[in-house]
């Protein structure tokens, strides 16, 4: 007994990985996500490896996780994978306060964000 199995949200040729609570603002993370959208996974991994952005390491880990999910859970061909979607969502925001001149206070917001990467298997155009 138990609940019936939930239908899969993605197509059979897709796999995804999600990284939650990354300590970077969504605006900065989206710059790195734009770098890999629509590229083959080999080229995307190479771009992230040599990127100067600090958060590129975490994006690379998430992409590698999506590739591993595609290979192990869904039996997809790794060489035919493309980054279909890479989107960023807002996470929580920690509010901190810093003293300023004349007894005033400055508000500092430390943003977190979530990253979702979807990889899709495509057929090679012969």
Automatic annotation (TrEMBL):
<dbReference type="InterPro" id="IPR018260">
    <property type="entry name" value="Ribosomal_uL22_CS"/>
</dbReference>
<keyword id="KW-0689">Ribosomal protein</keyword>
<dbReference type="InterPro" id="IPR047867">
    <property type="entry name" value="Ribosomal_uL22_bac/org-type"/>
</dbReference>
<dbReference type="InterPro" id="IPR005727">
    <property type="entry name" value="Ribosomal_uL22_bac/chlpt-type"/>
</dbReference>
<dbReference type="GO" id="GO:0006412">
    <property type="term" value="P:translation"/>
</dbReference>
<comment type="function">
    <text>This protein binds specifically to 23S rRNA; its binding is stimulated by other ribosomal proteins, e.g., L4, L17, and L20. It is important during the early stages of 50S assembly. It makes multiple contacts with different domains of the 23S rRNA in the assembled 50S subunit and ribosome.</text>
</comment>
<dbReference type="InterPro" id="IPR036394">
    <property type="entry name" value="Ribosomal_uL22_sf"/>
</dbReference>
<dbReference type="GO" id="GO:0003735">
    <property type="term" value="F:structural constituent of ribosome"/>
</dbReference>
<keyword id="KW-0699">rRNA-binding</keyword>
<dbReference type="GO" id="GO:0022625">
    <property type="term" value="C:cytosolic large ribosomal subunit"/>
</dbReference>
<comment type="similarity">
    <text>Belongs to the universal ribosomal protein uL22 family.</text>
</comment>
<comment type="function">
    <text>The globular domain of the protein is located near the polypeptide exit tunnel on the outside of the subunit, while an extended beta-hairpin is found that lines the wall of the exit tunnel in the center of the 70S ribosome.</text>
</comment>
<dbReference type="GO" id="GO:0019843">
    <property type="term" value="F:rRNA binding"/>
</dbReference>
<keyword id="KW-0687">Ribonucleoprotein</keyword>
<dbReference type="Pfam" id="PF00237">
    <property type="entry name" value="Ribosomal_L22"/>
</dbReference>
<comment type="subunit">
    <text>Part of the 50S ribosomal subunit.</text>
</comment>
<protein>
    <recommendedName>
        <fullName>Large ribosomal subunit protein uL22</fullName>
    </recommendedName>
</protein>
<keyword id="KW-0694">RNA-binding</keyword>
<dbReference type="InterPro" id="IPR001063">
    <property type="entry name" value="Ribosomal_uL22"/>
</dbReference>
């Amino acid at each position: 007994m138990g609940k019936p199995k939930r239908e899969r949200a993605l197509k059979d040729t897709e796999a995804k990985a999600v990284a939650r609570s990354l300590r970077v603002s969504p605006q900065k993370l989206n710059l790195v996500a734009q770098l890999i959208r629509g590229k083959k996974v080999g080229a995307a991994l190479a771009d992230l490896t040599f990127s100067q952005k600090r958060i590129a390491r975490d994006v690379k880990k998430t992409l590698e996780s999506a590739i591993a999910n595609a290979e192990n859970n869904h039996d997809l061909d790794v060489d035919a994978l493309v980054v279909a979607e890479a989107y960023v969502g807002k996470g929580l925001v920690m509010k901190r306060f810093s003293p300023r001149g004349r007894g005033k206070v400055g508000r500092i917001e430390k943003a977190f964000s979530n990253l979702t990467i979807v990889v899709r298997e495509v057929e090679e155009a012969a």
